[in-house]
Amino acid sequence: MMLSPMAEKNKQAILEVLMDYMETVGESFALELASGSGQHIVHFARAFPNVTWQPSDISQSAQESVAAYVAATKVTNVKEVVYIDVAEPWEEWANLQPKSCDLIVNINMLHLSSRGSAEGLLSGAWVLLKPRGILIIYGPYAINGIISNETNAQLDRQLRQRNPDWGLPDMDVLRQLAYEKSLRLERMVEMLEDKCLIFRKFDEQ
Length: 205
Description:
By secondary structure, the protein is α/β, with parallel strands linked by helices. It has six helices and six strands.
């Protein structure tokens, strides 16, 4: 089992955002992309026993950690973790079906990814979400090219030194990309240095 201090710190705050959008009764299905250690998804699963949660990650070690957390916490509403690379077409996403998801969650991934991953995430979300389904993306962002605090500015510089394709994504660029995929930015929640961006799939005409 991997232990992420950051995940332990922010899991309750993210859960409180989810509570504004998820029903506590009635069956629904949620996909987490880039589940990491697994700390988030078991925390969410305990709070929403009516939701079936699908974890995923590109990393074998992360997949093993998710499975270990599920076993240790004995949650019964988390499915077996699957491999998903958001940069691949949605058809490669573990046989998930169009319009099958009420919610898609992605936490602290985009600043460690290329623009292609962001585009893939948004394209896949548009296909997999039900009409008016919700996509929640959590992480550090720039806004109109400006990084508002020095901690995140330093993080951005360090990431770009490691990989020129990495770095804090710009919220306004994401908003435009999402709109082109029929996803509307409905709300931004400030959370310490990071933010939760809540997108909703357009109503189908």
